[in-house]
Structures are given as C-alpha cells and as structure tokens.
Amino acid sequence: MPILDTVINRLDRKTRGVALTFGGMGALMVGGKATAIGLVAKGLRDIEAEWRAAHPDFVGGKRARWQAAIEFYDATHQHPTNRKLHIVGIPIIVGGTTGLLVWPRYTPPWFLSAGAFGVGWALNFVGHGLYEKNAPAFADDPLSFIAGPIWDLMHLKQALRGGADPMAAAA
Questions:
Q1: Closest by alpha carbon to 125, among 158, 155, 95, 82?
Q2: Of the candidates 13, 8, 18, which has an alpha carbon nearest to the alpha carbon of residue 142?
Q3: pTM of the model
Q4: CA 15 from centre of chain
Q5: Distance between CA atoms of 156 and 159, rounded to whole angstroms?
Q6: What are the tens digits of pLDDT across the range 42-66?
Q7: Which residues does 169 contact at the CB level (< 8 Å), separation at least 6?
Q8: Closest residue by Cα to residue 90 from 151, 165, 22, 157
Q9: pLDDT (tens digit, 9 = 90+) per residue, 14-29?
Q10: What is 43-79 written as a DSSP string?
C-alpha cells in the first residue's frame, strides 16, 4: 500500500512506532497473526530507538534497562483505581493475545479471545484516560509490554498476601 507507506514514513519515529504497534494490535484482532507480530515488532523497535535517543546518558546493561522500565511503569501507574483496572485488565489482555495467536481465526475460541483482548485494553484505557490522565506506558517505553504484566502480577500477589510492596524490594 504505497499511500499508507507514505503516510507512515512521514511520521516522526515515536509516532510511527506507536501507530505500528496499534496497527499490529488491530491486525491481531482481525486475524492477521504474522502481520500483527511484524507490525508490533517494528513499532516497538521504533519506540525503543526513541527511548534511547531521549536517554542519551543511559549506559547500563539489560538489568539496568529493565529496572528503568519497571520504575517508569510504576511512575505512570499511581492512581489506585488505574492500578486495580490494570491488575484485572492485563491478565485478560495476555489471555486474549494468547488465544488470538493459538486458535484458528474466526472460531468460537478465537472470538472469545478477541473479546477478552478488547475488554482488557478497554479497562486499561479507562484507567489511563479517566484516572491516571496519561498515555499507556508502552507509548514511551516498549519494555512496558513485558514490565506491565510482571508489575501487575507482583502487585496482585501482594494484594492477595497482604504483604510488603514487592517493587520496593526490587529497587
């Protein structure tokens, strides 16, 4: 699609990365598994390149990069209602994504997975739009796609156990 390529290539790298990532999620919702994976991968590469350009003093390795992602994710998820919506929404997204990739397109389990994927994202967007008043973390840090589920799992375990904040121990 030459017109789409022209439009996408005129965007700055970060905007293009976010657009490609959203496009990949859309492709997944209509059954394009390989297309979805390719678009998300390209989008996340662009967002990571922009993250690195915005953090020129960052010199750490994988562990330091991971810690920066967790700290950023935590900083962008402070409102208690947003946190609760994410603790519910993220596992639904992960389950929906898994189903969309595993089940044959347009079968009953695939449609159930698509519904779960959409509901999970809706919960997260409500949390960011109404409560947190910021964009989803992956728009600024692509590791949030991994940090988010791990962060939420740790907070869910904390809530179920009534223990100390696991993120304080990770710092």
A1: 82
A2: 18
A3: 0.81
A4: 15
A5: 5
A6: 999 999 999 999 999 998 899 999 9
A7: none
A8: 151
A9: 899 999 999 999 999 9
A10: HHHHHHHHHHHH-TT----HHHHHHHHHHHHHHT--S
